[in-house]
Amino acid sequence: MSNDISVNDVAWRLLMELCENASRYNVNVKKAECGATIVDAGVYAKGGLEAGRIITEICMGGLGRAELTCREYDGIELPCIHVYTDSPAISSLGSQLAGWNVKDGDYSAIGSGPARALALKPKSLYETIGYRDSSDRAVLVLETEKEPPENVLKKVAGECHVECEKLAVILTPTSSLAGAVQIAGRIVETGLQKLMKVGLDPKKVLSAWGISPIPPSHPKFLYAMARTNDVILYGGISYFTVEYEDEDELAKIVERAPSSASKAYGKPFLEIFEEAGKDFYKIDPNIFAPAVVIVNNVKTGNVFKSGEINTKPLLQSLGFK
Q: pLDDT, tens digit, for every residue of 97-107?
């Protein structure tokens, strides 16, 4: 994809759909003192499935689609989100990835979405995928339960090189329904990030789709966070179409790609987190991957699959007795 396609410009059109139909999407929209647009999709607002769906597409810079569906897991029908994109490196890694720790003073939140491609968070990733955005508008999604203060909004606008009036921030608490939907909607991004980690060049990925259960909401952040991890680790499927020369290397990469390649695999994420002393950095990073990874090589037509759906820890985590 050439750099003349702006993820922020495309996502801004989806943002306008969200803002202009706020009552339909159950979100609250307001202007901050500095002029930035703040969209509350779950802090005080009700939010919901449709808000989560369109926010997922915004996170992907408008270069991917998200649809709500359902799938059976050991006899239990669960709501799911299905996402797909023909620009996987840009939409997933260059936009959707939660790669910006937005922090200033006492405020801290994880940022994702197309604004990252203006601020280059992190810069090394954009060098890897060969993309950077150029736009006078910026859209940032924050996983947070608190509205960012004026100093944070001004700092974000400055790092994106836009005026505050052209900055939009969408708030999606993990414990909210919209938050749960948009995190589950990261199934392709999670798979592509893991594939890259174990050796795949993301620029060789032509298209991708994925499906993940949407976890039941939980009012406590710790449980909500654990569930949003488990739906991907034990119930998520990601599928990639690639153009790859060395199939022996590709087979080895796919084998290491699913969550089952981790020594921490098999327990609900809450147990994994507690055993690590509630320190993410002490958790084996190989666990952060879909349950199933499938890769089709268009060079040969061959398909490689690794991993499996694991309903026991999944349903345990989601509260099914």
A: 999 999 999 99
271: three-class secondary structure by DSSP = helix
Q: How wide is the angle at C-alpha 169 spanned by C-alphas 165 and 174, nearest 5°?
A: 170
CB 48 within 8 A of CB 172: no
How many CB atoms lie under 10 A from the CB of residue 8? 28
Backbone angles phi, psi at 78, to 5 degrees: -120, 140
Q: Is it true that domain 1-56+95-172 has CATH number 2.60.40.10? A: no
| End-to-end CA gap in the chain | 47
Backbone angles phi, psi at 112, to 5 degrees: -145, 175
pLDDT in tens, 29-79: 999 999 999 999 999 999 999 999 999 999 999 999 999 999 999 999 999
Identify the architecture of domain 186-321 in CATH: 2-Layer Sandwich (3.30)
At 141 the three-state DSSP class reads strand
Whole-prediction pTM value? 0.96
Of residues 242, 240, 213, 239, the one with CA closest to residue 228: 213
